[in-house]
């Protein structure tokens, strides 16, 4: 005698997630109905049923990165117009580096030769000044960077304000969801 399989209900969390994710884009919540049939099987649906309990499920979490503002600087330049610098560049973080959940990101700038008296070094993050230096300080910090792509720009200006050396580079920040089963953040 063969036995027919007992009906199994889908995991409530899976069902709620699927229903929330299938909601209309931009919707704030999804209405879900939950009921138990005569055999004791729990059901979930987005369609009302007699005797069903109404559950309000928030929309699925999404993320949209803030668009990066172009820095407007060119790659390292030491053109023939008489630049006193052989190079100016970001050496940390590495170009195209992908950083996982950093609390802060150290930014180190290399100038060859070092900053001349009267010249000013300006470092920007996504077009916003990160700091300026009029001495040999070439170390900066980015605190709690948002996830996404970030562009670091470096510009050295002479005492008259004319750019004499400039460069830019991009790095990336990844931020995990603590709800993700494979997230290293779950172990913290």
Describe this structure as you would to a colleague.
This protein is mainly beta and 188 residues long. The chain folds into two domains: 12-58, no CATH class; 87-174, Immunoglobulin-like. It is built from one helix and eleven strands; from the N terminus they run H-E-E-E-E-E-E-E-E-E-E-E. It has a five-stranded mixed beta sheet with strand order 5-11-10-7-8, with no helix packed on it. A three-stranded antiparallel beta sheet has the order 2-1-3, with helices on one face. Strands 4-6-9 form a three-stranded antiparallel beta sheet, with no helix packed on it. A hairpin with a 5-residue loop joins strand 10 and strand 11 (163-174). The model is unreliable at 1-7, 23-27 and 69-80 (pLDDT under 50).
Rg calc: 27 Å
Q: Report how far the terminal alpha carbons are from each other.
A: 52 Å
Task: Indicate the percent of residues in helices.
Answer: under 10%
CATH architecture of the largest domain: Sandwich
Number of alpha- plus pi-helical segments: 1
The top level CATH class name of the largest domain: Mainly Beta
What tags apply to this protein structure?
rod-shaped; mainly beta; five-stranded mixed beta sheet; three-stranded antiparallel beta sheet
Q: What secondary-structure arrangement, pairings included, does this model have?
A:
Blueprint: H1 12-21, E1 29-36, E2 42-45, E3 53-58, E4 87-92, E5 98-100, E6 104-112, E7 120-125, E8 128-133, E9 139-143, E10 148-157, E11 163-174
């Amino acid at each position: 005698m063969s036995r027919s399989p007992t009906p199994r209900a889908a995991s409530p969390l899976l069902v709620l997630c699927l229903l929330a994710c299938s909601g209309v884009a931009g919707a704030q919540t999804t209405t879900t109905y939950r009921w138990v049939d005569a055999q004791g099987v729990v059901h979930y649906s987005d369609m009302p049923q007699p005797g069903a309990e109404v559950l309000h499920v928030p929309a699925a979490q999404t993320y949209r990165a803030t668009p990066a503002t172009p820095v407007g600087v060119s790659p390292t330049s030491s053109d023939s117009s008489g630049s006193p610098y052989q190079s100016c560049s970001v050496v940390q973080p590495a170009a195209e580096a992908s950083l996982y959940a950093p609390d802060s990101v150290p930014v180190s700038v290399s100038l060859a030769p070092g900053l001349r008296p009267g010249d000013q070094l300006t470092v920007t993050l996504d077009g916003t000044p990160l700091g300026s230096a009029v001495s040999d300080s070439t170390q900066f910090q980015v605190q709690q960077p948002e996830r996404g792509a970030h562009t670091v720009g470096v510009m050295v200006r002479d005492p008259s304000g004319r750019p004499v050396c400039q460069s830019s580079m991009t790095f990336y920040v990844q931020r995990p969801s603590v709800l993700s089963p494979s997230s290293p953040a779950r172990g913290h």
